[in-house]
From TrEMBL:
Free-text note on domains in this protein's UniProt record: Consists of three domains, a large central CORE domain and two small peripheral domains, NMPbind and LID, which undergo movements during catalysis. The LID domain closes over the site of phosphoryl transfer upon ATP binding. Assembling and dissambling the active center during each catalytic cycle provides an effective means to prevent ATP hydrolysis.
Subunit structure: Monomer.
Its biological purpose: Catalyzes the reversible transfer of the terminal phosphate group between ATP and AMP. Plays an important role in cellular energy homeostasis and in adenine nucleotide metabolism.
Reactions this protein catalyses: AMP + ATP = 2 ADP
Protein name, per record: Adenylate kinase
Annotated organism of origin: Weeksella virosa (strain ATCC 43766 / DSM 16922 / JCM 21250 / CCUG 30538 / CDC 9751 / IAM 14551 / NBRC 16016 / NCTC 11634 / CL345/78)
Amino acid sequence: MLNIVLFGPPGSGKGTQAKFLEQKYQTPQISTGDLFRYNLKNETDLGKKVRAYMDKGSLVPDEITTQMLSDELDKGKSPNGYIFDGYPRTTSQAVALDKILAEKFNEEVTVTVALVVDDEVLVQRLLERGKTSGRSDDVNEEVIRHRITEYYTKTAKVAKHYKAQGKWVEINGVGDIDEITEKLIAVINEAMIKED
Ligand code: B4P
């Protein structure tokens, strides 16, 4: 199985790239952001619990997020593995993902690829997306900047976890989307060779 973690600040291109990788490797994308938005839209109990966090651009508490991810994986094992998009976002989530993959599938993360993008580029991308996405967290610059701050205070630390495992690779997330996809594929293919 190929278990890819796509990492990076909000707007760095995780969701964009996950769609291409999903096709290429036949591995479903699991986006915790999309799962939360589905629950918001359908006004589920989970959606009601997380709305305030998401509207502010804050991370949803780990227990809620990890339970949701675990439930998603229980829906049936993907034969080729997964692309984790937006999870883990804290060290506690990274530890939980290792445990979940080991316990459920006797598997581990293959590689974590971090997309590196300058903050001002992130803000412009997200404001641009906010014009059409209907996402409340994309329209307000203050909320966008809070999401970026959350990334630096809570999420960036996760690098240490994967560096210690020799599973951390950074790539430049600025440039043509196709070229970034090619770079990602090269990193993933190399990680697959190493794993064999
Ligand atoms: P997410 O849905 O994960 O949102 P995101 O960080 O904005 O990334 P996304 O994948 O959507 O955007 P992308 O970079 O592809 O999270 C939303 C919220 O959910 C969080 O703030 C939090 O509240 C909650 N949440 C989710 N997971 C959580 C977790 N694990 N723990 C706690 N809370 C959690 O693209 C952005 C834009 O850039 C797009 O418009 C795209 O077209 C554009 N773009 C991409 N690549 C480009 C390129 N190379 N050049 C130009 N534009 C590009």
